[in-house]
Amino acid sequence: MMARAISQGILGLLCGVAVLALAACGPGDGSAGAAENDNAGGKIKVVATTGMVGDLVRVVGGEFVDVTALMGPGVDPHLYVASEGDVSLLQDAQMIFYNGLFLEAQMDDILRQIGERKPVVAVGEAIDPARLLSWAGKGDEHDPHIWFDVSLWQETVAPVREALSELDPDHAAAYAANADRYVADLQALDAYVKEQAARVPEAQRVLITAHDAFQYFGRAYGFQVRGLQGISTASEAGTGDVRSLADFIAESQIPAIFVESSVPVRNVEALQAAVRDRGYEVIIGGSLYSDAMGDATSGDDSYLTMFRHNIDTIVGALLGESK
Q1: Taking a C-beta distance cutoff of 8 angstroms, is the pair 292, 76 a contact?
Q2: What is the mean pLDDT of the chain?
Q3: What pLDDT, on a 0 to 100 scale, did the predictor assign at position 10?
Q4: I need a surface site. Which of 139, 175, 183, 245 has the fewest CB within 10 A?
Q5: All domains in the chain, ordered by first residue
Q6: How far is the CA of 315 from the CAs of 11, 157, 199, 220, 256, in angstroms?
Q7: What is the mean pLDDT of residues 244-248?
Q8: Please, are residues 87 and 17 in contact by the beta-carbon 8 Å criterion?
Q9: What are the beta bridge partners of residue 283?
Q10: How confident is the model over 94-117, as pLDDT tens digits?
Q11: How far apart are CA 235 and CA 229, in angstroms?
């Protein structure tokens, strides 16, 4: 399994907090019936883990949901540890949505425990495993970065619609209409990304980033992808990794490498320096959103705008069009 950055003692403490909070509920609290009663007077209270999942639920739920995302811009979900305040938010929520596939590694046990008392939906685990990439060649563990293939992320719309409709059947038609519109938006985005990717000659479609989050992107849009760190940022890049990747960049004359908004830039800067030591100058082509979206001031605070930023940044840098 992926390395966990939190000790079992801390995890046990947090799980204990969650269990105590849940035990304090009456026998009916957290059930679908209780949530429906609450919804009669207002919006469904939803907690999502990542920004991407939160955005998905906001779009499908529309005016009938009030969504809080635990992990904001620049937050790394691989290393995120639930606070006592997070446990309170999870307890107060009527529904919880998360990515799953062990992305939220440190919260996995808490989410599964709370799921025994209220609706908790792992959107990524509704996807056919045959469409998922394995992690480190292990068939029983999957790469969780499913949002980097737009056609794959489209598969998460249905489980959100179904879960909301089951909890709140009075608004099922609205959830279905919102879901249909969003699927159309995702299909248009997928077409745009393919069109932009095709502008880069196939031999130049090489994407080098801070960690190995873009394998689904590479498979969907025809890029060779190399990450300095592994799939989880809990695994550190060693000097051998830097040397090997620097050799590849210099030998292949790769024009640009990329930092990520949720991963410290120092490793990519060290890689750039190592390439320079080999007599070749590679630029840092920009910052990509990997495990988190942008904030409201960036304009990249939705899945659609975040993905357009990424493909425009990648293509612009690889073609030398960046400003």
Answers
A1: yes
A2: 86
A3: 38
A4: 139
A5: 8-191 (3.40.50.1980), 195-318 (3.40.50.1980)
A6: 41, 28, 8, 15, 10
A7: 94
A8: yes
A9: 256
A10: 999 999 999 998 898 899 899 999
A11: 6
CA trace torsion 299, 102, 206, 251 (10° rounding): 130
Under DSSP, is residue 34 helix (H, G, I), strand (E, B) or coil?
helix
pLDDT in tens, 183-242: 999 999 999 999 999 999 999 999 999 878 899 999 999 999 998 875 444 455 567 788
The pLDDT of residue 74 is 83
pLDDT greater than 60 at residue 300: yes
DSSP 8-state symbol, 149: S
Measured between alpha carbons, how far is 37 from 41 in angstroms, rounded to an integer?
Answer: 8
Q: Which amino acid is at 194?
A: K
Long-range contacts: 188-196, Cβ < 8 Å, 24+?
Answer: 189/150, 189/304, 189/307, 189/308, 190/150, 190/151, 190/154, 192/308, 192/311, 193/150, 193/220, 193/221, 193/307, 193/311, 194/221, 196/311, 196/312, 196/315
Q: Which two tokens stand for residue 13?
A: 């403490």
Tell me which amino acid residue 110 is.
I
Distance CA 136, CA 22 (A): 36
Tokens of 212: 């190995």
- Both structure tokens of 306: 């975040």
Q: Helix, strand, coil shares of the chain as percentages rounded to 5? A: 50, 15, 35
* Distance from C-alpha of 49 to C-alpha of 235, rounded to nearest angstrom: 21
Instruction: Residue 296: count other Cβ atoms within 10 Å of its Cβ.
Output: 9
